[in-house]
Each structure stands twice: as C-alpha cells, then as structure tokens.
Design goal:
SDR_fam, NAD(P)-binding protein, Rossmann fold, about 250 residues, six-stranded parallel beta sheet, oxidoreductase activity, NAD(P)-bd_dom_sf, two-stranded parallel ribbon, about 45% helix, oxidoreductase, alpha/beta, 8 helices
Length: about 250
C-alpha cells in the first residue's frame, strides 16, 4: 500500500544522510503527512524543525525499559502514528586477520543496526495492530543495504547486521500478512552519507556513491507504489538477480 495514505511518519535517524533526505521529501508530499524526525543531535534536530519537521530526541540504543517509556510517550503524543522508517545505523571496518578485533564495535554495530531496530518494532507493533483492528493501515520500513544481499568483506559485521535485518523483515511480513500492517524494505546501494566519516573513507567513497538528490526520489517513488523491496542502483541489480532466481522471500 502506498505511503501516500500515511498520516504520521516517524523517521528514526533523521539527523543526517538518507534519514534526513527522506524526512524532507516525505514532508513535501501532496498528502502532507506529519513527519517526526528522531535522532540524538540537538543542533540537527533544530535544523529539521526550522524546515517544518516535528522533532524528537530519541536513542534506539537505550535500555529496553527506557525505550518502552519513550515509545509509550510518543504514541500518547501522536496517536495517529502509522508509519516508522529506520535509518539509524553505524558502520565499522574489521579485519579478522589481525590478532585482536574490536569486539565492542562488533557488539555496538549489531545492537544499533539490528537488535535496537527489532526492539523498537516490537514495542510499536501493538499500536499498529490496534490500528489494523480498526481497519487502518500502517507501515514498518527498515532500511537495510545492498550489502545485506551481497556482503562487503571490509565491513564484515555491518553486512551481517543488515542481512539479519533483511531476513527479519521478510519473515515479519509473513507473520503480519493477515493484518493491515505493511512491511516494506528499503535496500540502498552505496549512497551519499556521513556513515564513513569515522573510517576516513568519505573522500574515496564519494567518487562511487549515488548522490542523495538522485537516490531519494527513487525511494520515494517506491514508497508511493508500496513496493515490498525498494532497491536502486547496484542494489537493485543484485535484487533483480535474486528475484529472477526465485530466491527472494522466506520458506513457507
């Protein structure tokens, strides 16, 4: 189902990159949904607010009790919340040939990219199920990566975390198939991002990535069509190969 009918859209990780670009693009839709940009950086949230985006200080990596309280408060403030997009994430490089891999980075990467997303989905799902019982649609939209389909050895654990989220999304869609909850997955290629700044790779990767001003409209079009898997660029080529081979989707 098209995102055009969504009333209130929460974007987790809206302070930079793709999350910010989607927040601005969705707020500009003719359907004029309320868009809530969630993130940790106050200055970035203030900048979004100046552009007409509702903002929320939000950290998906909080302990589950605090995360639940924040979700409950959010739903109380925005009872029409009917869509969530997960754009937050971290990326590190690991080389297992080295004597010692940074296990704290491994844990943080898996927690933020996968466990925190699944936890937040689990806390939002009862609200979406209640909407479904009233005949109202909702959307759960994780952003994974082309590396979920074809991993990058230099970002070995990042690829694994996104593959886990891709697998979860496909199975969640089946579990919720008899409800009005739509599970869509955004599968970007290498796109313009601050994700690589800490690795010192931004200058190198900027020669190869898809600029956000080219990528974002393609993703918005997919959301408006209600595509279950929204891929573009090289990620789209990989996804089409998977589909053509009949390897998409979980066992049923």
């Amino acid at each position: 189902m098209s995102i055009d009918t969504a009333k209130t859209i929460l974007i987790v990780g809206a302070t930079s990159g793709l999350g910010r670009a989607l927040a601005l693009a969705l707020a500009a839709l003719p359907s004029a949904p309320t868009v809530i940009g969630a993130g940790r950086r106050k200055a970035r949230l203030e900048e979004l607010a100046s552009k007409g985006i509702d903002t929320l200080e939000f950290d998906v990596s909080l302990p589950i009790d605090q995360l639940k309280k924040n979700i409950d408060d959010l739903i109380a403030k925005y009872p029409t919340l009917d869509a969530v997009i997960f754009s937050s994430g971290v990326q590190y490089q690991q080389n297992f040939k080295k004597q010692q891999v940074n296990l704290e980075e491994i844990s943080k990467e898996m927690h933020i990219n996968y466990i925190a997303v699944v936890s937040t989905i689990s806390l939002l799902t009862p609200h979406f199920l209640a909407l479904s019982e009233r005949g109202l649609p909702s959307w759960i939209i994780p952003i994974t990566s082309g590396l979920a389909l074809k991993p990058g050895p230099q970002v070995i654990n990042y690829s694994a975390s996104k593959a886990a989220l891709h697998s979860f999304s496909d199975s969640l869609r089946i579990q919720l198939a008899d409800t009005k909850i739509n599970v869509l997955e955004i599968i970007p290629p290498l796109v313009e991002s601050e994700l690589h700044d800490d690795q010192g790779m931004t200058e190198t990767l900027s020669k190869f990535w898809m600029p956000l001003d080219k990528y974002t409209p393609l993703t918005i079009e997919g959301l408006q069509r209600g595509d279950l898997h929204i891929a573009a660029g090289k990620a789209q080529a990989v996804w089409k190969t998977i589909e053509a081979a009949g390897l998409n989707g979980p066992f049923q």
